[in-house]
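Section 3.1 - Work completed
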Amino acid sequence: MLRGVVSAEGVPTITLTIAGKDWPATIDTGFNGDLELPEELRDSLKARHIGRSTAALAGGQSVEEDTFIVEFPFDGQTVQAESTFVVGAGILIGTHLLREYSLRIDFVSKTVLLERS
């Protein structure tokens, strides 16, 4: 089980410890992939390039990106997940990574709960 908070801006976030550092991870229900990760984590997650993919963005835009398989620490386990890497300090968690979880976002109490189903 993972717990998090809803920020003042309404963003559901959990904190993940990866490579000895705490990282903010946004639960992005509009993202149907697995992960978008900071470039800084590429080596520590043993990223293996698997090709290029096209992602559909809001507003009808699309972007072509390099895609990788990573060994990602999540909820006490290491899972294989597909990821892209970007410059920045935040993680985006998509709905595909959460397919075995129940997600509860309570905007009133500003809490996030991820529980394996």
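Second construct:
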Amino acid sequence: MKVLEIDDDKCNNCGECEKVCPSKLFTKLTEKNRHDKIYRLYFFDDPYDFCVKCGHCIAVCPTEAILYEEAEAPFNFEGTKKLENILPYEEMIKLLRLRRSMRVFKKEEIPKEKIEKVLEAMRYAPSASNRQNWRYTVIRDKNEITYLSNEIARFFKVARRLLPLKYLIAPFLSKGARRRVLNPKSKIQLDKALQRMKNGEDIVFFDAPCVILLSSREYTNGLAENDAGIALTYGMLAAQSLGLGTCWIGFAQRRLQNKIKLRKHFKIQKGLNVHGVMIMGIPAVEYQRGPPRKDLKVNWFEKK
């Protein structure tokens, strides 16, 4: 979506576009350089292609005077200016507090239309410098989900074989990994995981009928995973509104980041990395209440 210019006939010189542009590409003429024949005072100028295509100018203009190309029509509806009246905080907090990570699903397929609605919600998530670099891989084939689960679960077998050497490999691990490896409970946890696998359990995706992989290029500012987190959170909340359950599978995400073979299998383009894995299905349990959370730890710096 590329901004081109301002429509002379529609611009009312309100200056809202100048206020909201993060790259400051809208300029107001002074009386000294203003031509009397030109009523419009504000101009868009981007000779160095600094526009991040965020669309703030399009969204804020009261007269729809911003001209642009290569995009859908702006989104508008009655009540746009009073969003707090559509979903007041008291209702929003209910939705947020009752969202749960779902790992128990009915053996039913999700209608494709619902998956598309979830993806559409993720499409509108914010991203650093409005990059919108996400690529999604939606896996609905049960055989492919099983294949990916088994490949990821191989880690547990390897980890169990290496566990007797934990004191030798510990110095080469990160602090967090070292703590987990040296934990006396590691053997018990791995043995339980392996036994569940022998019993035919899917200990990675929990028999979810849909797995969504989010991939993107790395950013120079290191915010790719942040953006993925925001996008998948949008998706999780959208899924909840459609009666679906979701869960972020961080372990699968890390394994896919380390396995070129798996990325190739699922046709993730070279240069992209997996920054999020989400499972989705129709919940087989119904949570009755939201559990408690820890109190916030907040440092306030207030005006004296």
